[in-house]
């Protein structure tokens, strides 16, 4: 945790400079090669970006949620692929261990995740279970000191790069819903663990997803997160509460970048004898975007502070993910519109961002799942 404003400002400023000077100039290369250059990955490691949220005792920076979202606002002002590489170590890949892991599990894995020596990924989704996560069918059957895992996980971010996988599997086949699910850490190279081919996505080139396949994969029983069966679904939901807030912050940063690009273009581009930024119909798009970004930013900061104050922010995290990701989609659409024909060609970053940000309304819970969580919590709270 950064306890003083001066150090926090230094961190946010150095992130902002790194994004501007190193990442933005590399965006086209990443989009064309589908790879983040190795020297940039090394610099990200040296800056401590893989361990932003990992507690200091395990070698990370231990940022609070508020500090994390302030950092995320900056990191998101460039291609989401860069954020995605560090995102699983700071978020869904490591949080299961941080929130519910045993001391030994934390000591074993977290320092390597904080340094970026290991990449973590989070494997919940399956071919037959996406939004209905509790219906997952991957099984983990106890056999002596091991569990034998069988099943397939789908669209797993950073799976091709990962050294460890947080996976949710059913340890009790008699319980069809969430209570039969447990969370495990599975290491790369474990016999029976293999990967599918890398998915060809609409956007986010440089961020890789693929299937993770388990065929009689024997995992030590010591690798069950927290040491207890049957609580893996709750671990996953707690991880997602935090992850959704983080993604909402990313939506704010990405929208700010697109609006900056659109504003600059509108001030340079002349039609009917004057910059198009002087036209009120263009101004309306700029102003609506500014107002919506401000609203999302304020929501995210408020929810982050509440989480730091140990409040249950399941509802607020879903509100933030819902509003910020939809807002980001609207800003992307307006930014393309302001660019006109230029917004439809790849010479301008906005064409790429338009495709990249489409994912924000889908992953870590679709907009419709956020609506469902919010409304369910409202009904539950009203009947208490
Ligand atoms: N924190 C802690 N516990 C939670 C929780 C949370 N945020 N949300 C749910 N739980 C608990 C519930 O309290 C319940 O516990 P009990 O059985 O002890 O009462 C249990 O988990 C099951 O919850 P619920 O009944 O709400 O589960 P459902 O199957 O009805 O659905 C949704 C839950 C739809 C919200 C869940 O499946 C979901 O988030 N789906 C989207 C998955 C997703 O985001 N996927 C993206 C891919 S991962 S990047």
From TrEMBL:
Give, as in the UniProt entry, the pathway in which the protein acts: Amino-acid degradation; L-valine degradation
* Cofactor(s) named in the record: FAD
Organism field: Paraburkholderia elongata
What family does the Swiss-Prot or TrEMBL record give for this protein?
A: Belongs to the acyl-CoA dehydrogenase family.
**Known Pfam families for this protein?**
Acyl-CoA_dh_1, Acyl-CoA_dh_M, Acyl-CoA_dh_N
State the Gene Ontology terms under molecular function. Answer: acyl-CoA dehydrogenase activity; flavin adenine dinucleotide binding
Protein's UniProt keywords contain Iron-sulfur: no
Domain of life the protein comes from:
Bacteria
Does Transferase show up as a keyword for this record?
Answer: no
Provide the protein name. Answer: Acyl-CoA dehydrogenase
A single BP term in Gene Ontology: branched-chain amino acid catabolic process
Q: Which PANTHER family match?
A: ACYL-COA DEHYDROGENASE
Q: Which residues form the Acyl-CoA dehydrogenase/oxidase C-terminal domain?
A: 231-378
